[in-house]
Every structure is written in structure tokens, then in C-alpha cells.
Specification:
The complex is a heterodimer.
Chain A (H helix, E strand, L loop, with lengths): L3 H4 L30 E3 L9 H5 L5 E5 L12 E6 L8 H5 L5 E3 L14 E2 L37 H4 L12 H9 L6 H5 L6 H9 L3 H11 L3 H7 L3 H5 L11 H11 L2 H8 L10 E5 L3 H12 L3 E5 L8 H4 L8 H12 L4 E3 L10 H7 L2 E4 L5 E2 L12 E3 H10 L9 E4 L3 H18 L4 E4 L11 H9 L3 E2 L3 E9 L2 E14 L5 E14 L2 E4 L3 E2 L7 H6 L22 E3 L9 H19 L2
Parallel strand pairs in A: 6-7, 6-9, 7-8, 9-20, 11-18, 12-13, 12-18, 13-14
Antiparallel strand pairs in A: 1-4, 2-3, 3-5, 10-19, 15-16, 16-17
Helix pairs in contact in A: 5-7, 7-8, 7-11, 8-11, 9-11, 13-21, 17-18
Chain B lengths: L31 E5 L11 E7 L2 E8 L7 H6 L3 H8 L8 H15 L5 H28 L4 H22 L8 E2 L2 E2 L7 H24 L2 H7 L7 H7 L3 H6 L6 H4 L20 H25 L21 E8 L4 E8 L5 E7 L1 H13 L8 H7 L4 H4 L2
Antiparallel strand pairs in B: 1-2, 2-3, 4-5, 6-7, 7-8
Helix pairs in contact in B: 2-3, 4-5, 4-11, 5-6, 6-11
Classes of the chains: A alpha/beta, B alpha+beta.
């Protein structure tokens, strides 16, 4: 200690003449990354509620909002933030599946009423709504959940183009776990699925390595999991919240994974279905397609005696006779169908209503009748030449392939149509050509441009891998026939398929024409119902909608005849999951009627 | 200058029995019981010291905690792995980033997640910035406990400079929440290094002014030198770490003994002193300010410009860690800061236990250190141990 120690501290007086370092306005603008009050782009937000799930303080609650309509892919809910709880960590922003949520860099807000500090960002207008600065999801591939699916193992095109062996191999245990882990459990899928399957729940069962629980959950709403796990139109995946930033969860493959894991022999034990009390009432079902089978299964659960009348020699309907084996192997159809039939369902094959049994007899012998006969009549383009013997309907050919009946396989084939059925026949023809001629020459042409083709994207890609040519955007004009031999298809450029009002009204550029050489033409532009088995006396009594279609109750599928229920593709869809859903609803509707 | 000698010989009071135990009889009216805290400007946070005084000298001290308990460890045990970080930081307000680091690293170790190189550099930068903002406030704060307020104001100013940089980098000023299990939540913003360098220059300049104002100050020296001396034999007996151990001649620094992140790529030597009184415990931290400034410069110079800053982790909503346990340590400005985490295969930690530095320093050491100290110096002794009550009561 010295005298210096007395003097040196006085050097601090040197600051007396310096500018003060304090801020004149402490309410300065915060940094561009600052985590301030919440903003939400309400139009981008889908109300998945992942922000609510991640919030450690339960500061976010999803609530219904008047200005937002609940629809497929949007829960109609929006996050409400409670600033009495929020800790401004910004996890809600980082985890947001649509990137709609962000934080502004505003940090001052005075309100007299504490309740005001609860608000719905984006709906309750705030001064910082337009503030571009503030915390956003970090750039780059930052994500709190993997955005990509595990790669699905498939047969190589060279290994599959000459056979009908199933292409998709299915997930391994590890792949299924990885994929199930990605789910954020928002339930947007459940709301969109026509059958409202408990998708997050069975995905959770996979994560818990409890596939048996998964199977039980699936059978609550869908008795055809093996089938839907392969060929469902997966509307759930279209709306999956993860699809906004990355790849949607492959819900369909996970469903298949669960069903594949449980052997048929264990189904009865796993599903633990005790024998239900028989109520002695009888229900007839016409058609053993997805809707008929679904209705039969759930009616049996309710104790009804069920008889299915099937025109063909096996159950499955369009699933068996419309979908080629490489997408849906027959043994997998059998697995689902046999379990349903094993529940005590009586099925009469080779029995056509109106021919083998009169429709009136159904009314007399049964308490209720459920008609789900599907769409098995192909529509024709009716262009000149379409009545030629070498012009076929896709649906007829597909049925014959399943039945093992011989079909015509020409060296050069043109398929008209851009839907999944068109792709099915295109790829089936490609396989048959490869087997017969060793090379493929099949062209599929559709009205729609490629990006608007109704077929699944993977169908188009895989068809091309199998050397089929997909040449969309053409409207058929004439099937050219010379010397009673088909020479090919003359087409013109299709400019648009629908008019401004959204009605089917294609417009063409007649100057832009093309000609596809072919020995054989297959039409696949849609199918219609054949309800000829219902006698005219009944038809007259059935109420119709303005477009001439039979009217049914949207919840019970009951027609204007009290005992007659209708469903499946003839009412909505067409696809399997709608059939499963309305079969289930019809079962409940029949129960409502008969169990009053 | 004998009138300035504040350290009168009171070795005869209180009387001791044959075992050397103090005979304190409150009814004799020779002793006064006095509570310092839990609400007292001289106590760093909510804790209290129960003092027994003979005159103005402390003859016995007992620490009392429990005024601040918020059950953080239990709260973390009821949260998903991703949510624990936001709770863990609140176990130390003054330097929350050590909590972030030990928590995130423990979860990563237990889940076998390897973080990218860039994340390691940014984490190191954040830890050093946190150290700096803590030190620049607490070193002049040591003089504040003796009544010199100017240094405290400078300290707050210097801290604000770093908090500005924290705000720019992490989006938060006090609680940064920038580390996340798997990495960090962003890269450095444009121009960050330039602005940081300006701040470092300012802090260096103020650090030297603080040296003049405090460490060459006759009053400070009179109060701090030879007050509350920690004997080197205490270091291992009590488990003293960090700057307190270094001030007593023990070179203890987790960054050197168990290098984590990228500390093995940085060139630094923590200051070690020989005699641990209040003065040297403040001075060793003053040297730490300069070391930390240098470290931040090294990090900004050596760190890569771009790169992945977060590893892909499992979905944070379902993140489960296999059964296991780990202890992760880091060197905070106060000493070894560690977290012990046990996982049981579920999506939440089974047990979280924080080793707060003050648990050792401010309970056991403080009780013994206060004996013989003048009542006016209690606050100074607590600050000289950089007491942080929240990390005692987790």
C-alpha cells in the first residue's frame, strides 16, 4: 500500500468530460433476431397444434377462430398465446410445420387488463403484425424432426417388368420406427381420412413397438388394413402437416407395416373379439367389395346375421378385379377378407341379384339390404372406331387378368385415360407384352397435362421405368381402322379440361394433331354403375338428386326406402377408403334402423 | 497509522473450552444474534446468513437457504428433453449459458448425438461471452460491497455491451436459449465479429480503468487485503474449484483439465495466485476478464465461416434416450459447473442434479470463512465467492 493508491483512483474523474454511455431512449429497436411478441400468418397456418405440444409452459392453446374455416388439411384452430406463461424461447416457431409462426422484435406492450395479454396472433390485430424483423425458424436444414422419409425398398424395374410380383417391399422394423418417429401427432390426417382412422395412435403404437395394439386401433375403423396399407389413395398423406416443409409421413406404408407384422393366425387372438350376442336380425349385402366387406364386418360386431351376395367367384370387388397383382397381391386381399368372413359372415359367390335371386326376395328375407356393387361398367370415348373388336375397356381386361382368362395382347397398344386405372392397364399391358414379345410398346395418353393427371405421381414414374410411354395432353379424335384392322389413334392437343365454372368441358387446338400407331386400343376414361338389377318399380320409388343419382342420407347411407342402404363407389369415391368408411357408417345406420 | 488498523485482536473472545469449542452463551449479553438476509442488499440473491457477533466481529455463522426454491430439477424431470433447456437456464440468472451447455451436452451424450463442428465453436463463443458478462459485472461489484458504486455502474455498462451482442446473436439478452440438444439455433449474424471487436476494445479499456479505480485503491486494499483468507488446505477438503482455488495457488480449470468443445484448440493460461484473500480473489477474476477477451478474439478468428450448426436429432416430440447416466462438467466463471443426468429409456430424464459451484462455496466455505470477519465485510465475502443462491436451490 502506498500513497499512489490514494491518488490513482481519482483518474476516474477523467470520465467526467466524456459523453455519457447511457441511452437517451431506452425503448430502442431490438435486434433483428430478437424474440418478441408472436406473429402468425393465419392463411399459412393449418392449426396442427405442434406449437401447443412443444410449449413447455402451456402458454399456447389452440382455439377455434371465426375467420378460419375447418376443412381437409386445416383444423380451423389457431394458437392463442398467453403472455402470463410465455418464456419467449421461440420453440413454437422452430417447430412450426408450416413456418407460419414467427416472433416480431417488438418487446413493449402496455395493457391495463391482464386478459388482453392472451391473444391470437394474426387474428387479433397488433401493431407488430407487419413487423418483418424478429425471430424466425433458423435457415438451412434446421428441423426438430426429420423432414425426409426413409427410402422404401422396391423391386428394380428390370426385375419387375416381366412379372406381376409386388413391387413395394415394405418397411423393415428400423425403417418403420424412423418413419413413425417423424409424426407430430397433429391429427389433421384423422380428420381428413374418410374412415377417420386413428392414424397418430397407430403410429404411436409402432413407436412403442406394439404392432398388435396398432392392429387393434386400425380395426376400430378399417377392417382392410393390408389392402389399404398398399393401395389406399392416402388423402391423409396429402394433408399431412409435415408435407408443408418436407415429405409427408408415409402413413400408408406404416399401416401396411403393422398389418404385415401380425400373422393371420394371430389375428383372432390380437383383436380379442369376444362372441357378440346375436340379435337375430338379418342383413343382406350386395357386392363383396370394400364397402360390402366393411359393412359386413361391423354388422357382425353388432350381432347381425349377414349374408353377402357376390356375382364373381371371389370376394374383394374392384380391389381384386381392378387392381393388378403387382400393387396388391391376392394373398394379401385374402388375409383381410378371410378374417372378415371368419367372423361368421355368410357369403354366396356366383350369385347375381336379379338373375339368380330376385331383388324382391331380398326385401322379403332380410331386415335391411345394403347395396354396394361398385362401378364395373367401363365408359367409352365413343369416337369413330371405338366399336371395333380390338378396342377394349380397361376394367374388363383387368378383370380377365385376375380371373386368369386369356386376353388380347397386341404388339402396339394405346391406352386412353390418365387415372390410376389407366396406369394399371398400361403397366399390366407392358408386362404382358414383355412376356409375350420381349419388348414393350404401350402408349398412355390423357386429356390432362402431366401435372394435372389424376393418376398418382409414383404410378406415372414407375410406368415409365417399365418402358411404357406416357404422353398426356391429347384428346382422342378417331381410332383409325383400315381393312377392319386398327391402325392407331388420332389425337388433337387438349388445351384445357375444365371451363371457368369448373365443369368438364375440354377445349382443343385442332391444328395440333398427332397419331399413335396401335394394333389395339384400351379405353380407361372412367367407370359407371350398373344398377340394372334393381327393378324399375323400386327405382321409381327411390329419391334422386338433381343430377339423377340416388339420394342417400350422408350419415347413415339410407335411401328413401327405409330398408335399403347404398354405399361404396356408387355413392362416393371411387376408392377403397371411402367404401370402407361408408360401409362402416351404413352398418351403424342399419343398426339405428333395426335397433330402435 | 494504527488508528486505521481495523483488525483488532479478538482471539480471546469468545472463550473456548478444553476441546477448543467456542463458548457462546447468548444470555450473557456479550453476543448478538443477527440475520443478514434473506432480503438484504449485501446478499447476492435470496439467502440468509445467521450471524453471531461479539462486538462487530462474527464468531459464528450459519447459512440458511430455502427462500428461492423453485424445484427446477424436478421441473426438468417432468419435461421433454427439448423443453428441459428452457428450465435449466433459470438455475443461474447471471450466467445461464453454462446450464444450457451442461444440459444439452448431457442429453446428447445419453442419446448418442454428435454435434457439428460449427455448433461447438458457437457454443464455446457463447460460453466465453457469458463468462465475460458475468465477470465484468462482478469484479467491480466487489468494490461495490465496500461502498464504491462507480465501478458497479461501469460493470453494468460493460455487461450491457455483451448483452447487446447476445441479443444480436441469440435473440435474447439475459436468457439466451440458443443452444439446443443437437447443436445451436443459428449462425453468427453479418457484421457480428466487427461489432464484438469494438465492444472488446471498450471492455479492455474499462478493465484497465477498473484496475486503477479498485485494485490501486487504498480503501479497497485496506478492506480486502488479508480479509477472509482461504487456507490452501481447505481447497481439497471442501472441494473448492474455479477462481477461488486458483487464487489459492491451485491451477484448477475444467477447460484445461477436461477440455470440452474446442477449448483444446485455444491458447490460454488461467491466472493462478498464491494467497486467497478478498483482494486476490477479485484480482484473479480481473485477470480472467483479460483472458476471456483474448479467448473470444481467438474463437472469432479461428472459427469456420459456415457449416451445419445442428445435427439431425430424433423428433423432439418423441425423443427418448436409452437407459444411462452421465455427468457433464464445464468451467463457469465461478468454478466447476456440472450436471448429472439419469435417463431410463423414456422421453423425460429420470433424474437431473446440478452441481452448482455455490453449493460448496456459499454454504460450507462461507460458514467457516466468516468467522473472525467484521460484520461490515459479510457482503464482500459473499461476493468474493461469487455466490449465486439459485444454483444452491435447484
Amino acid at each position: 500500500m502506498s500513497f499512489k493508491d490514494v491518488l490513482i483512483p481519482f483518474k476516474a474523474w477523467g470520465n467526467f468530460f466524456k459523453e455519457p454511455v447511457t441511452l437517451k431512449n431506452p425503448m430502442r429497436e431490438a435486434a433483428p433476431r430478437y424474440r418478441g411478441f408472436h406473429k402468425n400468418n393465419v392463411n399459412e397456418c393449418i392449426g396442427c397444434g405442434t406449437c401447443e405440444s412443444i410449449c413447455e409452459n402451456e402458454a399456447i392453446v389452440m382455439i377455434p377462430v371465426d375467420s378460419v374455416e375447418t376443412k381437409n388439411g386445416d383444423s380451423g384452430l389457431r394458437p392463442m398465446v398467453d403472455y402470463g406463461r410465455c418464456c419467449w424461447c421461440g420453440l413454437c416457431v422452430d417447430v412450426c410445420t408450416t413456418n407460419s409462426l414467427s416472433l416480431s422484435n417488438e418487446y413493449t406492450w402496455v395493457a391495463e387488463d391482464p386478459e388482453e395479454m392472451k391473444y391470437i396472433p394474426g387474428v387479433d390485430k397488433k401493431p407488430w403484425d407487419e413487423n418483418e424483423k424478429g425471430w424466425k425458424k433458423p435457415e438451412g436444414n434446421f428441423s426438430y424432426y426429420p423432414l425426409e422419409r426413409p427410402h422404401m425398398q422396391e423391386l428394380h424395374p428390370e426385375d419387375r417388368d416381366h412379372s406381376f410380383i409386388e413391387i413395394v417391399k415394405g418397411y423393415s422394423d428400423e425403417e418403420a420406427l424412423l418413419e413413425a418417429d417423424r409424426c407430430v401427432e397433429c391429427g389433421i390426417c384423422t380428420a381428413t381420412c374418410p374412415a377417420h382412422m386413428g392414424i397418430p395412435e397407430y403410429i404411436k403404437a409402432i413407436r412403442n413397438k406394439d404392432v398388435e395394439e396398432g392392429l387393434r386401433i386400425m380395426y376400430e375403423t378399417n377392417p382392410l388394413p393390408e389392402i389399404c396399407g398398399r393401395i389406399c389413395t392416402h388423402k391423409c398423406e396429402t394433408v399431412c402437416s409435415l408435407g408443408h416443409r418436407g415429405e409427408p409421413i408415409s402413413i400408408r406404408w406404416l399401416k401396411r407395416y403393422i398389418a404385415d407384422q401380425v400373422p393371420t393366425s394371430k389375428y383372432a387372438e390380437v383383436l380379442r373379439q369376444d362372441s357378440v350376442e346375436q340379435n337375430g336380425k338379418k342383413v343382406a349385402i350386395v357386392g363383396a367389395g370394400p364397402a360390402g366387406l366393411s359393412a359386413a364386418y361391423y354388422l357382425r360386431q353388432l350381432g347381425y346375421s349377414v349374408t353377402i351376395f357376390e356375382k364373381l367367384i371371389a370376394a374383394g370387388g374392384m380391389m381384386r378385379y381392378g387392381i393388378p397383382e403387382y400393387r396388391l397381391p391376392y394373398d394379401q386381399i385374402d388375409k383381410d377378407v378371410d378374417y372378415i368372413l371368419a367372423q361368421g359372415v355368410d357369403i354366396k359367390y356366383n350369385t347375381e341379384i336379379g338373375k339368380d335371386i330376385a331383388f324382391e326376395k331380398l326385401e322379403q328375407d332380410f331386415n335391411a339390404v345394403y347395396v354396394a356393387t361398385g362401378l364395373h361398367s367401363g365408359r367409352s370415348t365413343r369416337v369413330p372406331g371405338s366399336d371395333h373388336a380390338m378396342v377394349f375397356q380397361a376394367i374388363d381386361l383387368l378383370r380377365k387378368i385376375t380371373l386368369g382368362e386369356p386376353i388380347e395382347v397386341a404388339e402396339k397398344v394405346v391406352v386412353i385415360g390418365g387415372g390410376n386405372v389407366a396406369m394399371d392397364i398400361t403397366r399390366s399391358m407392358a408386362r404382358l407384352q414383355k412376356i409375350k414379345y420381349g419388348k414393350v410398346n404401350v402408349i398412355a395418353t390423357a386429356l390432362e397435362s402431366e401435372d394435372k393427371m389424376p393418376a398418382d405421381r409414383e404410378e406415372i414414374v414407375e410406368a415409365r421405368e417399365e418402358n411404357a410411354v406416357i404422353n398426356p395432353g391429347w384428346g382422342p379424335r378417331e381410332i383409325v381402322v383400315e381393312n377392319n384392322t386398327v391402325k392407331g389413334l388420332k389425337v388433337v392437343r387438349c388445351l384445357s379440361v375444365f371451363d371457368e365454372t369448373g365443369r368438364f368441358n375440354p377445349s382443343f387446338d385442332e391444328a395440333d394433331t398427332n397419331f399413335f400407331e396401335a394394333d389395339m386400343v384400351v379405353e380407361s376414361i372412367g367407370q359407371g354403375a350398373d344398377l340394372g338389377f334393381i327393378p324399375a318399380s323400386y327405382m321409381e320409388k327411390l329419391e334422386k338428386d338433381p343430377r339423377g343419382r340416388i339420394k342417400v342420407d350422408p350419415h347413415t347411407y339410407q335411401s328413401s326406402l327405409e330398408w335399403l342402404f347404398m354405399g361404396g363407389d356408387i355413392i362416393e369415391g371411387p376408392d377403397v377408403i371411402h367404401g370402407v368408411a361408408n360401409g362402416h357408417k351404413a352398418a351403424k345406420g342399419i343398426d339405428l334402423l333395426l335397433n330402435k | 497509522m494504527s488508528f486505521l488498523n481495523l483488525k483488532a485482536d479478538r482471539s480471546k473472545y469468545p472463550q473456548r473450552d478444553a476441546d477448543g469449542k467456542m463458548q457462546i452463551d447468548l444470555d450473557s449479553h456479550k453476543f448478538v444474534k443477527l440475520w443478514q438476509g434473506p432480503n438484504h442488499p449485501g446478499v447476492t440473491g435470496n439467502m440468509s446468513v445467521e450471524l453471531t457477533l461479539a462486538g462487530d466481529e462474527i464468531v459464528e455463522a450459519k447459512t440458511h437457504v430455502g427462500y428461492l426454491h423453485r424445484g427446477f430439477e424436478k421441473l426438468i424431470e417432468r419435461r421433454l428433453f427439448i423443453q428441459g433447456m428452457q428450465t435449466s437456464i433459470r438455475m443461474c440468472v447471471a450466467e445461464p449459458d453454462s446450464n444450457e451447455y451442461v444440459y444439452c451436452t448431457a442429453i446428447e451424450e445419453l442419446s448418442n448425438v454428435e454435434i457439428p463442428e460449427m455448433a461447438k465453436w458457437i457454443r464455446t463463443l457463447i460460453l466465453e461471452m457469458a463468462r465475460l458478462q458475468s465477470l465484468v459485472r462482478v469484479v467491480p461489484g466487489q468494490a461495490g460491497t465496500f461502498g464504491l458504486g462507480l465501478g458497479v455502474q461501469w460493470g453494468v455498462y460493460m455487461r450491457e455491451l455483451i448483452l447487446d451482442r447476445f441479443e444480436e446473436l441469440t435473440g435474447g439478452r439475459v436468457y439466451h436459449m440458443f443452444m439446443t440438444p443437437g447443436g445451436v439455433r443459428g449462425l453468427l449474424p453479418d457484421g457480428f465479429k466487427t461489432r464484438m471487436e469494438e465492444n472488446l476494445k471498450e471492455i479492455e479499456s474499462f478493465a484497465h480503468r477498473i484496475d486503477d479505480l479498485i485494485f490501486n485503491n487504498v480503501v479497497f486494499k485496506k478492506r480486502a487485503v488479508d480479509t477472509a483468507v482461504i487456507d490452501p488446505s481447505w481447497i481439497d477438503n471442501y472441494g473448492i474449484t474455479g477462481f477461488v482455488a486458483r487464487s489459492a495457488g491451485f491451477n484448477r480449470d475444467v477447460r484445461k483439465s477436461f477440455p470440452y468443445l474446442i477449448y483444446d484448440q485455444l491458447d490460454f493460461e488461467p491466472k493462478v495466485m498464491e494467497y486467497s484473500d478478498i483482494y486476490n480473489r477479485a484480482k484473479v477474476r480481473w485477470f480472467d476478464i483479460l483472458t476471456t477477451v483474448d479467448l473470444i478474439r481467438q474463437i472469432m478468428r479461428k472459427m469456420p465461416e459456415k457449416g451445419d450448426f445442428k445435427a439431425q436429432t430424433p423428433n423432439v416430440l418423441h425423443w427418448t434416450a436409452p437407459k444411462g447416466e452421465t455427468y457433464v462438467r464445464s468451467e463457469s466463471s465461478r468454478g466447476e459447473y456440472g450436471m448429472y443426468v439419469v435417463t431410463d429409456g423414456t422421453n423425460k430424464p429420470r433424474r437431473v442434479n446440478l452441481r452448482g459451484v455455490s453449493y460448496t462455496h456459499a454454504i460450507c466455505v462461507l460458514e467457516d470463512l466468516l468467522v473472525g470477519v467484521n460484520i461490515a465485510d459479510v457482503a464482500a465475502v459473499m461476493v468474493s465467492l461469487q455466490t449465486c443462491p439459485p444454483e444452491i436451490e435447484r
